[in-house]
Amino acid sequence: MSSAPWVVSDREFCPLQTRPWFERNVPTWRRVVTVGGHAAIAELAARGVGVALLPCFVAASKPGLRRIGEVVRELEHGLWLAANPDTLRAPRVRALYDFLGNELEVIRDVFEGQANFAP
């Protein structure tokens, strides 16, 4: 992986905690393509342009990609469903949040890098 070309996020799109990781692990001259968006990064990596650092759920949903290293634990962060408490009192909104929470729990392994996405 250290000698491979990389497809990376541009600075505008790259999450703040990811920038230092790239600075430490991927020399600038290995960054062959810079794009803004996980979908574009995944597509270019799947086409063989270079390796990429992607959220597990993005990579798991893209045929042609395979993990070549471990999950980067230092870049993990939680997934939040947030809403104004008054809004959550509306039955339709509460039902949506309950549904989304249950569905995300069903595919937790995909988000944590333990399984592939099967639509």
What does this structure look like?
With 119 residues, this protein is mainly α. The chain folds into 2 domains: 6-68, no CATH class; 78-114. It has 6 helices and 3 strands. A 3-stranded parallel beta sheet has the order 2-1-3, covered by helices on one side. It starts with 5 loop residues before the first strand and ends in an 8-residue tail after the last helix. The mean pLDDT is 86.
Question: What key phrases describe this protein's structure?
Answer:
single chain, 119 residues, mainly alpha, 2 domains, three-stranded parallel beta sheet, 9% strand, elongated
Report strand %: 5-15%
Termini Cα gap: 29 Å
Computed CA radius of gyration, to the nearest angstrom = 17 Å
- Physical arrangement of strands within the biggest beta sheet: 2-1-3
Number of domains: 2
Element pattern in H and E: EHEHEHHHH
What class do helices, strands and sheet pairing give? Answer: mainly alpha
In total, how many beta strands?
3
Largest sheet: 3 strands, parallel
Task: Describe the oligomeric state of these chains in a short phrase.
Answer: single chain
Overall mean pLDDT: 86
Approximate helicity band? 25-40%
What's the tally of helices?
Answer: 6
In a few lines, what is going on in this structure?
With 119 residues, this protein is mostly helical. It has helices at 18-25, 38-46, 56-60, 85-88, 91-106, 108-111, and strands at residues 6-9, 31-35, 51-52. Strand 1, helix 1 and strand 2 form a beta-alpha-beta unit.
